[in-house]
Amino acid sequence: MKKGFRIKDNEAFQHVFKHGKSFANRQLVIYYIAKSDQDHFRIGLSVGKKIGNAVTRNRIKRYLRQAFHELEGKIKYSHDIVIIARQPTKKMNYHDVKKSLIHLLSRERLVKK
Fold first, then answer.
1. Among 10, 19, 72, which residue's Cα sits nearest to residue 41?
2. CA angle, residues 69, 54, 100, in degrees to nearest 5
């Protein structure tokens, strides 16, 4: 995923948390906010230390980035999206993570038909 598509600074994360909408399933929590001044979506990933060691956390983030890379053309633009991984994601493989992500994004209509 290109660096321009990532949310890195704490201020942007906090803005999405405070002013955005949220929804969740057992594996993931998603916060999002519409940003009309940008021409592409941006994502921020958060995997806490309770999930596992660094190897496990980085694997989950890699899975999520790859899923977004594959869904890049289908996701509605001009949104900031923050994803927080929950405990069950540490036992999931890539296909399960992607399926869970698609389920949440389509439920909230962030994916184009």
1. 72
2. 40
Closest CA to 104 of 78, 73, 68: 68
Q: Are 67 and 30 in contact (CB under 8 A)?
A: no
Distance separating alpha carbons of residues 82 and 43, to the nearest angstrom: 6
Structure tokens at 91: 């036992």
Of 9-18, 25-34, 103-112, least confident by mean pLDDT is: 103-112
Query: Is the pLDDT at 44 greater than 90, yes or no?
Result: yes
Give one word for 109, left, alpha or beta, with left for phi > 0 and alpha for psi -120 to 50: left
End-to-end alpha-carbon separation of the chain, Å? 22
